[in-house]
Amino acid sequence: MKTNKTISTLETKRIFIYLTTVFGIYYCLWLIAVLLPGPAGKNVYAFLSFPAIFMGTPALAVFITRKITKDKSPLKFSIKFWQNKKALLFSALVPTAAILCGIIAFFFIFPDDLDFSGQYISQTYGAFGAPPEINFTIFSMLMMGIILYIISALCFPVWFIALGEDIGWQGYLLPLLYRKLPARYAVILNGALWGMAHAPLVYFGMNYGNDYAGAPFSGIALMVLTCIVLGTWSSYVTLKYNNCMYAAIIHGAVDITGEASIWVSLSTQSSLLGPMPTGIIGMCILLIGAIILLFKLPEQKMDNMAKQ
């Protein structure tokens, strides 16, 4: 029978292998993309940012870690997410409602940034049938937001795309950290590490572009904060319901709702502010919710993983 010290050492080893794998892949590709000239570097970045690669890497790291350390314990994951209706409704509806409120707050503060002509939609989706001229009203924008809210709650294919990240950060790493640290520290550290994993993408302009104060370092710092905030919501449902599938539901729904905010924005304000939830104003309601959830985290330790 293994002693507590042996188990703790094994868990530390698993944390190290998981993080080394994830950051090793992300940061090596980042370095290659920076060093290679012209189109070659852009191609490496495009490869890294491809959803199957970026979102699939944490899942790959879980597989490698479990293989190396002979970890046969069950993951904190179940496909039967519909069995807990309360957790499903909370994950699909509450965080996205907070994001919609943050978007509204941004445009309330910066009403001149509202794009009633729908230029972004026309230019981006014109090839798919979007009309060249769109005349929005406040009412039609609100209706579009409600429709998008419903779609984001039901768009289950996006949940499974996001699952690659969440099964790594929430389903595997979080329980390991949770057994070693107080709950709030584990959640914040997990979110910060998740945010730093996005640094290569932010460096090349994801979410914030390249034209903002302090780029790219301020963008990376804000992405870390974003992942701590969103990670708190995701960690809460994972720890409470012992299933990271609910984190994937949050992740997928948030991605849809958050990205759509730029459809009606003239982008006259700094991307560090919003309207996307990666900006300070855009995430403000989500941040308030995260602070509340930090104090509602279950304090009891999750069941020890079987060490085989």
Can you describe what's shown?
The chain is mainly α. Mean pLDDT is 89; it is low at 302-308. It has helices spanning 4-35, 38-49, 51-54, 56-68, 85-109, 119-125, 138-154, 156-178, 183-197, 199-203, 217-241, 245-260, 284-294. The longest helix has 32 residues, at 4-35. Helix 1 crosses helix 8 (156-178). Helix content is 67%, strand content 0%. The protein has 13 helices and no strands.
Helix content: 55-70%
Assembly type of the shown chains?
single chain
Low-confidence stretches: 302-308
| Strand fraction | under 5%
Kindly provide the radius of gyration, computed on alpha-carbon positions and rounded to a whole number of angstroms: 20 Å
Most strands sheet: none
If helices are DSSP runs of H or I spanning 4 or more residues, what is the number of helices?
A: 13
Structural class: mainly alpha
Cα end-to-end separation: 10 Å
Q: What spatial form do the alpha-carbon principal axes imply?
A: globular
Mean pLDDT: 89
Number of strands: 0
The H/E string reads: HHHHHHHHHHHHH
Question: What would the keywords be for this entry?
Answer:
308 residues; mainly alpha
Detail the topology: elements first, then pairings.
Layout (H helix, E strand, L loop, with lengths): L3 H32 L2 H12 L1 H4 L1 H13 L16 H25 L9 H7 L12 H17 L1 H23 L4 H15 L1 H5 L13 H25 L3 H16 L23 H11 L14
Helix pairs in contact: 1-2, 1-4, 1-8, 4-8, 5-7, 5-12, 5-13, 7-12, 8-9, 8-11, 8-12, 9-11, 11-12, 11-13
